[in-house]
Amino acid sequence: MNINEPQFDLNLIEEVTASTVLLVMNDSNNNPISMGSGFFVQPNTIATNHHVIEGAAHGTVNLVGMPKKYTIDSVFAIDKDNDLALLKVSTSSDIKSLTLINDSETVRRGEGVFVVGNPKGLEGTLSVGIISNLHPLGDNKRLQMTAPISPGSSGGPVLNRNGEVIGVAVGSNQALGAQNLNFAIPSNYLKKLLNQSKSATPLLEQEQSISAETYYVWGNVKFKQGDYVGAIADYDKAIQLKPDYAEAYNNRGLAKHEFGEHAAALVDFDEAIQLKPRLSVAYNNRALAKSALGDLHAAIADYDEAIQLNANDAVVYKNRGVAKGELGEHAAALADYDKAIQLKPDYAEAYDSRGYMKNKLGEHEAALADYDKAIQLKPDFAEAYNNRGFVKYELKDYFAALADYDKAIQLKPDFPNSYNNRGLVKIDLNEHVAALTDYNIAIQLKPDYADAYFNRGVSYLKLGLLQNTIQDFLIALRFATQTGDTELKTAIEQFLSGLI
């Protein structure tokens, strides 16, 4: 067996899927507040994460892929420390319950596992991997695995190749910005909860307050869905309830950074570091904000500190490589990308970044090899297709470049760079009207895109539309000046001097 690609019995996977459910939880006004996964462990009894149901007054479940919804009757038992809950529902008695492994303490590193859940509402999604580590969490334990978990997968079953439940998938309660880690709650905690004799209480009678930790997890879910405004609102509530919550400050800062509020993000990262000086991921994230504000030397200092605190985080090496590349420290950037790949051989983004640097150094074939690897590891990696297309364009392999740009746009239709770059190929193929169409879309998607205005001006020039050319060149010059793009600014000025 290839340890990195465990194989599982397809009939077994179907049986597990038939016992897995999608949960949708609502507040007292019947507004949805969370969504997650669960599975049958006894007749009419579903296991899930506590954070999925916390604060809910009503809820429904449906078997994955089935339209019929069942109302959650009551809460049978809760273990807040281990983020577990048992729910009672009235369903048909022929739904098979999943079998828990006799003792989850016997689980070992390297074992193949699979997870069934509903990431982002995609019902019955399967992910596979291995157990990569066993972690203590205070007095409790967690299983770390390579099987990916996304928002909506929380509460789903994690099983070994015999179809025995070894754990319950849990949304990672970690500071965002580090390597993506996936965890499961060992099934021994679930067995203990099942053996507790407690009377069931209606969901509405459960405590309606929501903890800081749950707001934090909800914020993480919204962040991963790209809802940065919603994530910030949840982190605000987590911090209000727990003012010394360093991880919440860190994650709120990252959400603000992604939303373009880099200065405000720095304030949150500073607070996270003050509260928890050894929180390495906060240094990494503060560096990202500093880079966005153009302070690359200060960013590298933060990356250095993050690496000193955690020398095994591939993400930090990759990010530091990007900063060094922007400063022209190409050899040092390549060394960081190499280190990131050494630490995480399946790190598609590191291959992509290294490919970009190799192409910049004129190593086109080596760059193509890195982009090929990035795409092999992550077939939906639009940026890698775009970057590979640019190398092929520079090598004058125009039709191969077009194919890569087409694929990038198919994967990410709102990606302005790919439209701009595809326009470059069309100019060289003398398809100037088609090139204009691509530049128009690029500018529509990114109204301050100086390169697209400049390239569109070139297309107008080729078509003999001098007034349109000058107008686009002047707009491009203004944006290039604002962003400090001296190379583009010089090129535009040279073109204009020959036209005016």
Task: Characterise this structure.
The protein has 500 residues and is an alpha+beta fold. It has 4 domains: 88 residues, Thrombin, subunit H, CATH 2.40.10; 91 residues, Trypsin-like serine proteases (Thrombin, subunit H); 102 residues, Tetratricopeptide repeat domain (Serine Threonine Protein Phosphatase 5, Tetratricopeptide repeat, Alpha Horseshoe); 87 residues, Alpha Horseshoe (Serine Threonine Protein Phosphatase 5, Tetratricopeptide repeat), CATH 1.25.40. The protein has a 6-stranded antiparallel beta barrel with strand order 1-2-3-6-5-4. Strands 7-8-9-12-11-10 form a 6-stranded antiparallel beta barrel. β2 and β3 form a beta hairpin. The longest helix is centred in the C-terminal third of the chain and has 18 residues. It is elongated and about 85 Å long. It starts with 9 loop residues before the first helix and ends with a helix. The mean pLDDT is 91.
Topology diagram in text:
Blueprint lengths: L9 H8 L2 E7 L5 E11 L2 E4 L1 H4 L4 E6 L6 E10 L4 E6 L22 E6 L7 E13 L2 E6 L11 E3 L5 E6 L11 E5 H8 L6 E2 L9 H13 L3 H14 L4 H13 L3 H14 L4 H13 L3 H14 L4 H13 L3 H14 L4 H13 L3 H14 L4 H13 L3 H14 L4 H13 L3 H14 L4 H13 L3 H18 L2 H12 L3
Antiparallel strand pairs: 1-2, 1-4, 2-3, 3-6, 4-5, 5-6, 5-13, 7-8, 7-10, 8-9, 9-12, 10-11, 11-12
Helix pairs in contact: 4-5, 4-6, 5-6, 6-7, 6-8, 7-8, 8-9, 9-10, 10-11, 10-12, 11-12, 12-13, 12-14, 13-14, 14-15, 14-16, 15-16, 16-17, 16-18, 17-18, 18-19, 19-20
